[in-house]
Amino acid sequence: MHILLPTLYLIFIFNTNNLVLADPPYEHCPDANDNNSIASNNPFQTNVGSLLLSLSLNASVSKFYNMSVGNGNTTAYGLCLCYDYVTLENCETTITMATQAFTRLCRNSTDATIWEEQSMLRVSNKRFFSQLDMTGNINKYNTLNVSEAEKFRLVVNTSLYELTLNAAFNSSAHMYATQSVAFSAAQHIYSLVQCTMDLSPIDCHRCLQTSIVEVLGSENYRYRGGRLLSKSCYLRYEFYQFYEGKSSKFSESQGKQWATWILPTGLAFIVAILFIGSCVIYFVLRRKYSDFRTRDNPLFDLASIQAATNNFSEQNKLGQGGFGPVFKGVLQNGTEVAVKRLSNTSDQGTEEFTNEVLLIMKLQHKNLVRLLGFCVDRIERLLIYELMACGDLDSWLHDPRKRAQLTWSKRLDIMNGIACGVLYLHEDSRLRIIHRDLKPSNVLLDSDMNPKISDFGNARIYGSETEANTSVVIGTYGYMSPEYAMDGIYSVKSDVLSFGIMLLEIITGRKSIGFHLTGKGPSLQAYAWRLWNQDRWKELMEPQLKSNEVHGVTNEFLRYLHIGLLCVQEDPCERPTMSLVFHMLKSDDVNLNPPKQPAFFVGRFTDHYETSPRISTSSIRCIADLYRR
To answer: Exposure winner among 141, 389, 464, 474, fewest CB in 10 A?
Structure first.
């Protein structure tokens, strides 16, 4: 009976008339006809038959369902998703259509995905649940060109971006959101986004963000409608309402229906009703987003940030970073904030902005700067942080007057605080993070001079893997490990090296960036190592620290110098973990191994924000090789 049931089901769908003739369904099953495909009557295919039947039956009670059938190497894994506006009755119908399409188009595939107009079905011989998968994406377009193409791309991009935030981070949205926005007096653009509901909010956001870039890329933004079909998410935009139900935000098409009903009663009455309606909608949405911000999604409206910063006035400007200008602001409740505003010419774009929001909103630690919220409004991208009264560590270390105020005990407190924050990122947070851009300018100081790590635009989540690789090197070369700069390999040990360089800067008062211009060596760590080997390490101490020798500062300096040199060793395997670094800083009882040769990589000692951040590893290697000659 176990075999008979799926077999009968397969016979049934082979002989059923096609419910969809041409377009859709869309399929992705590249191995359906190659040598690796599954032969007929294979145990895996039998399990697929049972799986398809179960998915069809469950579609009548749930719009999202995943399950597996079988065990061992013949296990079949499956998932079905109906877009949230679809009724359960229609969901069952469209998933049945998808199972028919699967059997017709991808029958012998080991990993296949079918997209119908209102649903998606995926079957695989590997477990894929809760995993982001952007392979095999399909783009479809209404190839009629749109007038005012640049304006159209801006409106669509902004609408999709707002929907992405809502779908990913609003727990009541079910990974789904729609919106209607005005394009002209007579036209509206309707947009929809949806993720499979087994994804994490972060992966949902990443999937949709990648999809937005892909679907609007090249010249495709000139087309008046488009959709992207992915194994993990779906998005679409058109000049007509292709989905059922109301949009997530107030749709002006509703206003048209009201106007049609009210028109006979007179123009004045229409104006009055629309005015009252607009006021009600404004306050409802304002309250909605206020409640939204106090729960899990700290969305700020642009008007409140403009008021807080005096419309981003120069008098409120705190500084300029790679992201863009930073402004001081005071919220309506009296909270002082720092507002980072994405510049149109910024090296850091939407990806970095998104990364910052996704990561730092999930992290809570006394030594990490706190992100209060963010704002996305048309071309505006804003990040709202707690205000750090004393600025960044870089300005204190490299301003002679400020540095004189940094007592030895205060430097130790700052060092330990940074180490505590990095340890949290690497081992103690629910998301294990590699920061990839640790440096003094990314360490902020509060009114009590407590350090807090900031700027997570380049950070990456890591799991069980010990290292990862990238072809795009982003960071600051004076604090960058050689394996990352030259080969694109990064790990927690990359952060350890960056921390070690900061430690050397803190205790010596010397600047890493541009150190090779002093004529003392290719880098601060190389110079420190040479003086260590020559027993001339006291030359690294600042005069005011030497004068405190009777208080034991010299011995402590030597120990911290030793720890710093262990952190900057050339071989990543030789560098200690951050947990060991933290233990060494806190305890004098830990025996320290002799440090080995530090990383001598120089590269270009400039902040990556001053040049292009996306520099190939081959170019960096060439720079390093020229220096070595």
So the answer is: 464
pLDDT at 472 over 70: no
pLDDT band at 613 (very low <50, low <70, confident <90, very high): very low
Chain-centre distance for alpha carbon 63: 27
Measured distance CA(102)–CA(260) in Å, rounded = 45
pLDDT value for 103: 87
> What does the DSSP 8-state code read for residue 264?
G
Q: Which residues 6+ apart lie within 8 Å of 515 measured at CB?
A: 478, 521, 522, 523, 524, 527, 605
What is the per-residue burial (b if ≥16 Cβ within 10 Å, else e) of 502-530? bbbbbbbbbbbbebbeeebbebbbbbbbe
Of 624, 617, 578, the residue nearest 600 (C-alpha): 624
The 10s digit of each residue's pLDDT in 196-233 is 999 998 899 989 988 998 888 767 778 989 999 999 99
471-493 average pLDDT score: 77
| Domains of the chain: residue spans and CATH | 4-124 (3.30.430.20), 138-249 (3.30.430.20), 302-386 (3.30.200.20), 393-628 (1.10.510.10)
| Separation CA 260–CA 270 (nearest Å) | 10
Maximum C-alpha span of the chain: 96
How far are the Cα atoms of 52, 123, 330 from residue 2, in angstroms, in the given order? 14, 19, 67
Tell me how far apart the alpha carbons of residues 503 and 416 are, in angstroms, rounded to a whole number: 10
Distance, in Å, from the CA atom of 68 to the CA atom of 91, rounded to the nearest integer, reads 20
Bridge-partner residues for 182, per DSSP?
188
Q: Which residue, 67, 115, 122, 124, is CA-closest to 234?
A: 115
Q: How far apart are the first and last CA of the chain?
A: 76
Residue 230 is classified by DSSP as -
287 Cβ contact partners less than 8 Å away, ≥ 6 residues apart: none
**E strands, 394-499, in order:** 433-434, 443-445, 451-453, 460-461, 468-469, 489-490
Q: Which residues are CB-contacts of 419 (< 8 A; sequence separation ≥ 6)?
A: 499, 578, 581, 582, 585
Where residue 137 falls among pLDDT bands split at 50, 70, 90? very high
CA 10 from chain center: how many Å? Answer: 42
- 614's CB contacts (< 8 A; 6+ apart) are 472, 473, 474
Could you report the per-residue pLDDT of 252-268, keeping only the tens digit for each? 333 333 333 333 444 44
What are the residue numbers of the active site? 437
Retrieve residue 585's tokens: 């800083």
CB 189 within 8 A of CB 251: no
Q: Of 225, 193, 198, which Cα lies nearest the Cα of 211? A: 193
* Cβ atoms 434, 494 nearer than 8 A: yes
Nearest to 438 by CA among 574, 568, 326: 568
Asked if 106 and 180 touch (Cβ cutoff 8 Å), the reply is no
Query: Which residues are CB-neighbours of 629 under 8 A, at least 6 positions away?
Result: none
How far is residue 346's CA from residue 612's CA, in Å, rounded to a whole number? 10
> What is the signed CA dihedral for 470, 472, 475, 478, rounded to 10 degrees?
90
**Which residues are CB-contacts of 247 (< 8 A; sequence separation ≥ 6)?**
178, 179, 180, 190
Give, for 291, the enclosing helix (H) or strand (E): helix 267-294
Q: Rounded to the nearest 10 degrees, what angle do helices 553-567 and 524-533 cross at?
A: 120
C-alpha 618/C-alpha 607 separation (Å) is 19
